[in-house]
Each structure stands twice: as structure tokens, then as C-alpha cells.
């Protein structure tokens, strides 16, 4: 069953250099209980997509100017709807927990506040519920730490606190935006382990936003790859990683040094990341693409099924045969 | 092993910072950021230095180039003992010893053109490139690092992140160094650009015979570029080996945990790796555990680990590890 459905989403920002289209016609679904990875390099529009779903696109610079987002049949773009669901049905975890926690309130009280505000819990009930949650997310000596302030926690423990707050009201959709990017790799492994465990226990849908192709590999069912505000490839994770149809995806895969096996020379993507203020005509990836031809300059490619691949595997490229035969 | 003396030889290096009490407003102790580190880098070789944040990697680098003062130990670079070198001679040595930082933007003067940034070092070392050749040499350097030589008159903000890092590399190369210290030099770059810069660093090593001290927290990147790798934890090196040996046969429990935590984009290609997830965080170097620094997170820890500091001892050839039980681990690895 589809829980979240995003169609032709467009989000613009007014900047000093002009209007940028941060998300440009993105469409995707998230099924209930599914784990989906939203991938792409910095500036590709991942966070803004999440902001649009949560109804927190920064105003007045940014605005959703097209498309639709529906959650469980409800129109998230209708006034007040996203706000009503935020925290209860849809929750979010950010890269930098310190900036989303209030520095002057004790951690236990901040978690407990969720229950007080939304569930009408008493101070005591809220405290007990906060303690429960802190234990569930693996904070050692939780009862001693209820009265600590955010700065007294390490980065990894703060992220656990954020996850506890996000889970407080048992949301059905959790969006985690680069939840481990600021953490060391051993702590990253702990947090990913925690997120997958909680996802399974709660049966919730999980959208993992990251620039790191490796982090989500053992975790996500499906991937959505973004470039310059557009979805350029989507499909089951293994299918997309093993049979990338878009030159950008296969370029990314070839750019990551291997953890084992031979140390081959890397094959980087040529050129620089796109400048949203001066995108080329047609396909945004064209200046960096070895398969580009005239059609690519004239016609913007749309997502379509790749030849001889499962119907769920789609790429927005005029010439996917190039990559499919060269690389695989 | 070659009998030639290494280009850089670091022995028992210790660097500490005063720990100040905000309440008492005086120094109440020392933070041992680097607690006795030794390694060699041969000419043209690359040593990768890995470890989680706070393990002391940057402090090692900063001490080598003289930005921090060593509390004890020795740093011999190209025959000179740097810890006791007079300032005037340090300038001569620094020519051969350059550093590239993580944040290229912060380390580039925003009001200087790329040409001015690169040529600046030649003001201090006029013998390297005569004045009338500055322009031509800047163009050469820009070309070498993959930038358009016609952009020499531009300012840093007119370049992308990856291009700025190339400017930083060109600046480091301006004095024709023998050793370049890269401190998280590619960590902030998107992977597509990171791969370009890694290839550039590779090419420069081949073409110019550069040696690198390559510091990074990303183990895949370190594996890609290094000949040898040293793993740091709480100010000490806990294991060193050749790149190949370290990644296929890690001896120290911390190295094993680190490797196990490296995200693998294609896990299904390989036999299931043993997942080691260690708990907790790196302890503060202001208050390190007694005995083995890793014992608070180590699943192999025993009584003795709380009392005795394990020495970095060589049980497998050229593969020292600092763990009381590394013999057993070495046996198991065989
Ligand atoms: N608050 C903002 N003001 C202006 N532009 C913004 C803002 N947030 C995002 N953008 C623009 O949207 C683009 C996509 O941003 P984002 O979604 O944060 O990328 P990422 O994929 O790294 O999460 C950015 O390149 C930037 O141009
Ligand atoms: N200037 C300084 N003053 C006090 N403590 C410092 C200073 N620089 C580094 N430290 C401390 O020394 C330890 C090692 O830091 P660093 O060398 O930056 O580690 P790494 O580069 O491995 O992340 C850390 O605990 C850090 O807080
Ligand atoms: S549409 Fe053309 S330019 Fe774009 S990725 Fe495909 S081949 Fe390359
Ligand atoms: S010495 Fe003890 S605590 Fe330290 S790594 Fe070895 S087994 Fe673990
Ligand atoms: Mg983002
Ligand atoms: Mg550092």
C-alpha cells in the first residue's frame, strides 16, 4: 500500500542570483513499512524534498509552486494538513541534532514534552514515557541522563535523543535526513543498526536521505536518485546499484573507492556539479555526460522503464543502452 | 626493507594541550592529544593515518609542520630534527613540507586572485621561481591540477568546492615539496569530485615523486591511496601495516571494528562480513581509561587490559599492533 505519494513536485527559492528550482518535477512513492533511500550529491534537492513533505520549506524565500503530495489519502499541500500530521504521523530526524534540540531544557523534559503536548500526559507520565524511550533507543544509564542537557551528550547519543523524540508519538513515516553524516563510522553503524531495528519493530516507513551510497546498501529496499532537483533513476536498491541505467548513477558507483578487492583507478564523473542558476537545456547532466547527443540538448528526458529490466526500474535518460552495455 | 633513511621519521611524539578550568580560570591538567606516536614515511611513499575524530590525527600533522609544539619526541625530516630547529632554518624546511586542509575555502584568502594565492609563497622563497616567471609557472600549476590557466585572475568564490581544493593543491605544490600532508583533504567533497581529486593526487605522486601523509576518517579512501596505514585511537597508534595486510588481516580489535563499520555499496558481492558493532563513544583524551585506551569499548577486554598499557609490538612481520591479545589474533588470522 502506498503511504506517501509525491507527484511532479516543484519547489523554488528566491536567491540573490535569481530564482532556483531546487526540486523540479520530482515524483515518487513510499509504501507502508518500506525503507526508501533518497540519494544524491549535495544540492540535488533531497532536503528540500523532505521539507516539502513536512510542510517546512523555509518561507518566504522558498515555496512549493507545483505538484502534489498525498499522505494516506490526505493532501499534504492543503493548508494546515502537514502541520497537523507533523510529529504525530510523520516525523523527521536531522543531520545536526544539536541545532534541533533546545540547549536550555533537560533532555528528559524535551522528550516528555511530546507526550504532554500531544497526549495530555501529566509531568510524571511524561517523564516515565521519556525514560522508556531513552532506553529503547539505547541510551546507557538512561534514568541518570534524563536530567542532563543536550550539550552533555556525545554526537551519537544526541542523535539517539532525536530519534527518541521522533518516535514518541509512533509515527507511520520517519524521514531521516543524513542522520549519520556528522558521526564517526563506528557510531554511524550503531545508529543505522538502531534505525533498522526500530523500523522493523514499529513497521513504519523509513525514508533515508544520504549522499553515501554505501550507508543504505544493506538497509533500503528501494532508492530514488536525484540530480539537480530531478529524480534521475529509481528502482530496487540492488537492481539500481548493479544495473545502473543512468550515466550519473553508474558514474557515482565508479567514483567510490572499494573497501576490498583490487584497487583500480577511479573513474570519476567529469566536470563540476550543476549550477542551479544556469542549467543547460534538455538534460541537466549533459555537460558531464559521455553519451550526450543533440536529442539530450533539446528534450528533457523523463523517467521510463529501462530496456529488459524490471518495470519498477526507471531512469530519466535518452540513451540508457550506453551505460547498460558499457558498464555491465 | 630499504636501507635508505626515510624522508620523515617520527619517534615517540607527544603533544598536549593545557586543560583550563572555566571555573578556576587556570590550567588544571593536560590533554594528551598525541601520546607517543612513531612512524616513518619513505620518499615517494604514502602513509594513511586513520581513526575517529578526536584521536589526534590533526595534532600529529600540526606538530610536524610546527603549528603545535611537541612536548617530547623527535621529528626528523630529510635529515633535520624539526623539534629543535631554529626558526630561520624551519622556513627552509617548510618549503619541502606542505599541507592541504579539509576546508579549501577557509584556507584561501578571499580577496586574492588565484595567481596571487599561488605566487605568495614565492615572495618568501624567491629562489624557487624568479619573478618574471611567476605568471607562466602559475599557468603550469593550474594546468597540472586540472584548472583552466585562463582563470588565474579569478577569486576563490568564483570556483566550486572541488576546484577550490585544486587551488589549495596548486598552492601546496608551488614550492615543489617532497612531502604533502593532506588533512581530510577530500572529506568535504562530493564523491564524484572526490574521485577526481584522488586521481589527481595519485598522478602527482607518480609524476613528481611526492610523499603523502594522508589523514582521513574514510577508510575506503585511505585504502585507495596508501602504501601503509596507521590506525590511531586516543592519541596512540594501535596498529600499522601495509594497506593490503591491514585491510585483509586486521589484528587490533579497534581496527576490526572500524573495518566492519565501513559501509559497502555492494555487500551482496561478498561472503557475509562479520558485523562488529562496538558500543559507546571515544573517551575524552582529558580523562583516558587506565591501561588500554580501547578497553571501554573492546569486546575482548580482560582484567589485565585495565592495568597494563599494551605496547605496539611486532608479532606479524611489519605489522605491529598494540593489544595484549594480538598474538592470539595473529594466530587466528594466519
Ligand atoms: N533556504 C534556502 N535558500 C535558498 N536556496 C536554498 C535553500 N535551501 C535550499 N536551497 C537551494 O536548493 C538546492 C537544493 O538544496 P537541498 O535540498 O538542501 O540539497 P541536498 O540534496 O544537499 O539536501 C540548493 O542547491 C540550493 O540552491
Ligand atoms: N588547540 C587545542 N586546544 C585544546 N585541545 C585540543 C586542541 N586541538 C585539539 N585538541 C584536542 O586534542 C584531541 C585530538 O584532536 P585532533 O588532533 O584534532 O583529532 P583528529 O584530527 O583525529 O580529529 C581532541 O580531543 C581535541 O579536542
Ligand atoms: S539524457 Fe543524454 S545527456 Fe542526459 S544522461 Fe542520458 S545520455 Fe546523458
Ligand atoms: S589490550 Fe585488551 S582492551 Fe585493548 S584492544 Fe586488546 S583486548 Fe581490547
Ligand atoms: Mg541535505
Ligand atoms: Mg582532524
TrEMBL record, chain A:
Main localization (coarse): membrane
Domain ABC transporter intervals: 6-253
Subcellular location field: Cell membrane
Keyword list, A-Z: ATP-binding, Cell membrane, Membrane, Nucleotide-binding, Transport
Molecular function (Gene Ontology), one example: ATP binding
PANTHER family listed in its UniProt record: DIPEPTIDE TRANSPORT ATP-BINDING PROTEIN DPPD, OLIGOPEPTIDE TRANSPORT ATP-BINDING PROTEIN APPD
Cited InterPro entries: AAA+_ATPase, ABC_Ni/Peptide_Import, ABC_transporter-like_ATP-bd, ABC_transporter-like_CS, Oligopep_ABC_C, P-loop_NTPase
Organism from which the protein derives: Kribbella soli
Protein family membership: Belongs to the ABC transporter superfamily.
GO cellular component: plasma membrane
Membrane listed as a keyword: yes
Protein name in UniProt: ABC transporter ATP-binding protein
Protein's GO biological process: peptide transport
Membrane topology according to the record: Peripheral membrane protein
From TrEMBL, chain B:
Recorded family membership: Belongs to the ABC transporter superfamily.
Biological process (GO), any one: peptide transport
Pfam families given in the database record: ABC_tran (PF00005), oligo_HPY (PF08352)
SMART domains in the cross-refs: AAA
InterPro entries: AAA+_ATPase, ABC_transp_ATP-bind, ABC_transporter-like_ATP-bd, ABC_transporter-like_CS, Oligopep_ABC_C, P-loop_NTPase
Superkingdom, taxonomy of origin: Bacteria
Gene Ontology terms, MF aspect: ATP binding; ATP hydrolysis activity
PROSITE patterns: ABC_TRANSPORTER_1, ABC_TRANSPORTER_2
Ranges of residues in domain ABC transporter: 19-259
Protein name per the record: ATP-binding cassette domain-containing protein
Keyword ATP-binding: yes
Keyword entries, A-Z: ATP-binding, Nucleotide-binding, Transport
Species classification: Bacteria, Bacillati, Actinomycetota, Actinomycetes, Propionibacteriales
Keyword Iron: no
Amino acid at each position: 500500500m502506498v503511504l506517501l505519494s509525491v507527484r511532479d513536485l516543484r519547489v523554488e527559492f528566491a536567491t540573490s542570483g535569481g530564482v532556483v528550482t531546487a526540486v523540479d518535477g520530482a515524483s515518487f512513492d513510499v509504501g507502508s513499512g518500506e525503507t526508501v533511500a533518497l540519494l544524491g550529491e549535495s544540492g540535488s534537492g533531497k532536503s528540500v524534498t523532505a521539507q516539502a513533505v513536512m510542510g517546512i520549506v523555509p518561507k518566504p524565500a522558498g515555496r512549493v509552486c507545483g505538484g502534489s503530495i498525498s499522505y494516506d489519502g490526505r493532501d499534504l499541500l492543503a493548508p494546515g494538513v502537514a502541520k497537523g500530521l507533523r510529529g504525530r504521523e510523520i516525523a523527521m530526524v536531522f543531520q545536526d541534532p544539536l541545532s534541533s534540540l533546545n540547549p536550555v531544557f533537560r533532555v528528559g523534559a524535551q522528550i516528555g514534552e511530546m507526550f504532554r503536548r500531544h497526549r495530555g500526559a501529566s509531568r510524571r507520565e511524561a517523564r516515565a514515557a521519556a525514560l522508556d524511550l531513552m532506553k529503547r533507543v539505547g541510551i546507557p544509564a538512561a534514568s541518570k541522563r534524563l536530567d542532563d542537557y543536550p550539550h552533555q551528550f556525545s554526537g551519537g547519543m544526541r542523535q539517539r535523543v532525536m530519534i527518541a523524540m521522533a518516535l514518541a508519538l509512533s509515527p507511520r513515516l520517519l524521514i531521516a535526513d543524513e542522520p549519520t553524516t556528522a558521526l564517526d563510522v563506528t557510531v554511524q553503524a550503531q545508529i543505522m543498526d538502531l534505525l533498522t531495528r526500530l523500523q522493523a519493530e514499529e513497521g513504519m516507513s523509513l525514508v533515508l536521505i544520504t549522499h553515501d551510497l554505501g550507508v543504505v546498501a544493506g538497509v533500503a529496499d528501494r532508492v530514488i536518485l536525484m540530480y539537480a532537483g530531478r529524480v534521475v533513476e529509481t528502482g530496487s536498491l540492488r537492481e539500481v546499484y548493479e544495473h545502473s541505467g543512468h550515466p550519473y548513477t553508474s558514474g557515482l558507483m565508479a567514483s567510490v573507492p572499494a573497501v576490498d578487492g583490487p584497487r583500480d583507478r577511479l573513474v570519476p564523473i567529469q566536470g563540476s556539479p550543476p549550477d542551479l542558476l544556469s542549467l543547460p537545456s534538455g538534460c541537466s547532466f549533459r555537460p558531464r555526460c559521455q553519451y550526450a547527443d543533440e536529442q539530450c540538448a533539446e528534450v528533457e528526458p523523463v523517467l521510463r522503464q529501462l530496456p529488459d529490466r524490471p518495470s519498477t526500474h526507471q531512469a530519466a535518460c535518452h540513451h540508457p543502452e550506453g551505460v547498460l552495455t558499457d558498464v555491465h | 626493507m630499504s636501507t635508505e633513511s626515510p624522508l620523515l621519521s617520527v619517534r615517540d611524539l607527544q603533544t598536549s594541550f593545557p586543560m583550563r578550568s572555566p571555573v578556576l580560570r587556570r590550567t588544571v591538567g593536560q590533554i594528551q592529544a598525541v601520546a607517543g606516536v612513531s612512524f616513518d614515511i619513505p620518499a615517494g611513499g604514502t602513509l594513511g593515518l586513520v581513526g575517529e575524530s578526536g584521536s589526534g590525527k590533526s595534532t600529529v600533522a600540526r606538530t610536524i609542520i610546527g603549528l603545535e609544539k611537541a612536548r617530547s619526541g623527535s621529528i626528523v625530516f630529510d635529515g633535520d630534527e624539526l623539534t629543535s630547529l631554529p626558526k630561520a632554518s624551519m622556513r627552509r624546511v617548510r618549503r619541502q613540507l606542505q599541507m592541504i586542509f579539509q576546508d579549501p575555502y577557509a584556507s584561501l584568502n578571499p580577496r586574492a586572485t588565484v595567481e596571487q594565492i599561488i605566487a605568495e609563497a614565492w615572495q618568501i622563497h624567491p629562489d624557487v621561481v624568479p619573478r618574471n616567471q611567476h605568471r607562466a609557472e602559475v599557468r603550469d600549476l593550474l594546468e597540472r591540477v586540472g584548472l583552466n590557466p585562463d582563470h588565474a585572475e579569478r577569486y576563490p568564490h568564483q570556483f566550486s568546492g572541488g576546484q577550490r581544493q585544486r587551488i589549495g593543491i596548486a598552492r601546496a605544490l608551488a614550492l615543489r615539496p617532497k612531502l604533502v600532508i593532506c588533512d581530510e583533504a577530500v572529506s568535504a567533497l562530493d564523491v564524484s569530485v572526490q574521485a577526481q581529486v584522488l586521481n589527481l593526487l595519485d598522478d602527482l605522486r607518480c609524476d613528481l615523486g611526492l610523499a603523502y601523509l594522508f589523514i582521513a576518517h574514510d577508510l575506503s579512501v585511505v585504502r585507495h591511496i596508501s602504501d601503509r596505514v596507521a590506525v590511531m585511537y586516543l592519541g596512540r597508534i594501535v596498529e600499522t601495516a601495509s594497506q593490503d595486510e591491514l585491510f585483509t588481516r586486521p589484528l587490533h580489535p579497534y581496527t576490526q571494528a572500524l573495518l566492519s563499520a565501513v559501509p559497502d555499496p555492494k555487500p551482496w558481492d561478498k561472503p557475509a562480513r562479520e558485523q562488529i558493532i562496538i558500543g559507546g563513544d571515544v573517551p575524552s583524551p582529558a580523562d583516558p581509561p587506565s591501561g588500554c585506551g580501547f578497553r571501554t569499548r573492546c569486546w575482548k577486554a580482560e582484567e589485565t587490559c585495565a592495568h597494563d598499557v599494551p605496547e605496539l609490538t611486532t608479532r606479524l612481520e611489519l605489522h605491529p599492533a598494540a593489544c595484549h591479545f594480538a598474538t592470539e589474533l595473529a594466530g587466528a588470522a594466519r
